# Entry
Amino acid sequence: MPLDFTAIDFETANSSPASACSVGLVRVRDGEVVAQAGWLIRPPAGHDDFNEWNTRIHGIRAHDVVAAATWTQQLDRLCGFAGADVLVAHNAGFDLNVLRRACEATGSEAPPYRSLCSLAVARKTYDLDSYRLPKAAEAAGFGVFPHHDALADARACAQIIIDAARRSGADDIDSLGSALGVMITAPRVTTVERAVA
# Structure
């Protein structure tokens, strides 16, 4: 199987994981970036206050998302881009939690994506003082980029996985996880799903 996956990065308006205000997506096929997209999101009601700290990090303000699609309006677009790919993110627990929590906040069904953490991959691949995204991406041969721009972060994350696969001789995302001892996580089963199962 080829090295196929979609890298994803969310920025949030505040400390609520449901407050997605921006997303970046990068599609990789056979170890090459073939498509990328990013857009602003109007966070779900009740999660739409913009915290000064978050704004200082990513530069997005409430007035920037007034005309943006809501979480519910953009979810099909996000899923259409990612398809059935494994989602890769730097600190994947954060980004997959944003996906789940924003779906919960809007009553949407959370898509059952498997995920791989590029932070965990970087820790197994490089010997660095810091594994923050800019440092790990630099080790992977990715140049300077505007950190906390969702699309740029997703692109940097994709490069880490591509480089790690090359270094480890892995042909696909599952064999990369196996080679490095990094688990590809399955979607979480919700309480409702457990009760039905």
Observations:
- The longest helix spans residues 150-168.
- Helices lie at 52-58, 71-82, 92-106, 118-125, 133-139, 150-168, 173-180, 191-196.
- The chain has eight helices and six strands.
